């Protein structure tokens, strides 16, 4: 049996900008992606802490250490700069491996700089 598990999480990031005139996705600071092992074009779920909604999209790699969290395309209507979001990626794994799995989770500050790895 396969289980869908949380692979990575960026907790309490701040949306820095939105770009309606882009073909879709979320742009995320490359330093944050490296810290939680999320790849360019990987599917993620984004939870908006301010309004309680969720959206799924794919990742576009942003400039390293820029702090960018930019919702693009249709997702740009879903949040606004200053909103706090949680970004999660998932993976499939066998039941035995899942029972001992530990996801990569980071906390960031108001400027989207890594403050703690959990």
Automatic annotation (TrEMBL):
Pathway: Cofactor biosynthesis; (R)-pantothenate biosynthesis; beta-alanine from L-aspartate: step 1/1. Its cofactor is pyruvate. This is Aspartate 1-decarboxylase. Its main location: cytoplasm. It catalyses: L-aspartate + H(+) = beta-alanine + CO2. The gene is panD. The active site is at 25 (schiff-base intermediate with substrate), 58 (proton donor). It is an enzyme of class 4 (lyase). Binds 1 pyruvoyl group covalently per subunit. Heterooctamer of four alpha and four beta subunits. It holds the Pfam family Asp_decarbox.
């Amino acid at each position: 049996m396969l289980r869908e598990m949380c692979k990575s999480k960026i907790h309490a990031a701040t949306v820095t900008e939105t770009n309606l005139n882009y073909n879709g996705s979320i742009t995320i600071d490359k330093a944050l992606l490296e810290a939680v092992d999320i790849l360019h074009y990987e599917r993620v779920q984004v939870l908006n802490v301010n309004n309680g909604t969720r959206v799924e999209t794919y990742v576009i790699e942003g400039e390293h250490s820029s702090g960018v969290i930019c919702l693009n395309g249709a997702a740009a209507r879903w949040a606004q700069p200053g909103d706090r979001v949680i970004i999660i990626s998932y993976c499939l794994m066998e039941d035995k491996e899942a029972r001992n799995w530990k996801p990569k989770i980071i906390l960031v500050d108001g400027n989207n700089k890594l403050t703690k790895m959990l």
